[in-house]
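re: ur question from the group chat, yeah i did fold both. here u go
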Amino acid sequence: MVVPTRAAANTVKGAILPSGSRQVGEQRYRSPSNYADTLTFYGRQYKTNPRKTIVNQPGIRAVHIVNDGKGDWEGLNIYELGGETRIFVVLREKAPSGQ
């Protein structure tokens, strides 16, 4: 039997993910921590990055963190739905070639 181990934080296109995050879809990851702890993690990682609440309704909460630095990601959407905390990495749009 193979037991998954927790490694150092992973990155996706330069965006840092909490250790133990699991991919659940294209650019979507499940955080191993609850919503509050995941936001605390990102507060430490991206202290000065702008952020805003994008949803705050019964049963769902979400925050967007803007990438104001390097990497191929535009931002992170961190949301809680159905008792799970997920992270969506919003990639930068590539400029059309030849323009």
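okk and heres the other one u asked abt
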Amino acid sequence: MKKTAMLQIVFVILVLATSEIQGQPDITGFYPGGGEEYAGLQDAMGIIPGWKYAGIPEIKSLEEESGYRNFFKTDSAFVYRWDSAVSDWQLYQVQYYIYTSGRLTELLTKDYQTGTEAALSVYTYNSTGRNESSTNYIWAGEWKAVNRYLNEYDQLGRTASIRYQRWVNDAWTEDRLQHNYLFDTQNRVTRFETIYWRNNAWTLPSVNEHWYNDLGQLESRVASRPGGAIDYRIIYNYSDRGLMTQFYTQYPAGAGWSNWNLRTLEYDACGMKWSQTQYAGEGPNWTPSTRHEFFTSFRFDLYTGGKLPVCHKGKTLWIGINGIQAHLDHGDCIGECLYEKKDPKQSYHQIPFTVYPNPARERFTVRFDEDCLCSQARIELCDFSGTLIKSFPVNDNSPIVVERNNLKSGNYFVRFISDEVYSISVIFK
């Protein structure tokens, strides 16, 4: 039984958040009755054994909000459990995302069959718009607190500490503390320490280190116990378009590793995540466990960019706002196609420019075809969210050199905007 998460157009009044937070969390729910597998907002890098961090709601700065991708919001999600008796997914919960002034303030979970409330996660923010606390509750005739996460930040707005507390005997009790964060020159987390409150004292710290690949993507996290022995590691895999496709935990086992807790992610043709599935077991023979399918809307009331891209039968088209609904009704998605379909009937030079080298390190050159009518046009460099980074006027067919400057490693788009709009993916190593 598989449901398709469809994007729906809704008109809501939201206020843009005024600050960026450290990290991009993944909203995947809160499971009452599941031991300590609680998380209203789970860490984007996966559930860490022994540290089920609830994460931080995603907030974008005003500058970042200029990209059309930052005008999407998650409205709800279906939560499935795997029924081994029939070897199929069974829908058992629905989650509702509640926003206040543009920020996610509550995530309410209800039983799909009865409609009764099951769990609630509540989020508060400080004066700069950063998540200050995440508190989880379960319904037992009334809302009963389970745990909470308290976040502190340094002067640059980066995570300084994450404190995890449990509600025990009508009081908040210390359990774990992540602190002593270190960052690289691109403000990516490279290391932090975790201490545990046991027997009325803090334990010696365990260390969590982050490793990134040449594209700037998080490749692995390695957790070490006091004394240096490796406790576990988390491995992350990505598609050729830079989208995370799966991550899983491994424990040392003899001379090798033992797998545990796989999560896979699926995206629509425009690169919007619409499902996340968790598997149990040791792999590679994974056992399905839970699955989330997300329903997303676009904030048209805030978007002032005019046209929007839609992926129509493998081709990116830029459409006026009034024409978007008709495309959604027959299955198109808002966004540029991850994989542009090539029409054999079209000439090779359908896109009137090339980019080289690609991938690039310090700079790349945009070269126009000889027959390109390139006057009164422009070239734009955008990040993967669609945020404009640089713009260059185009008056003739002369090449344009685009310098990297301080841009991070990763995937970007080069757009040629004239009577029509064309785009090419480019990678900075």
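fwiw on the second one: The chain has three domains: 70-309, 310-347, 353-428. DSSP finds one helix and 28 strands in the chain. idk if thats what u expected
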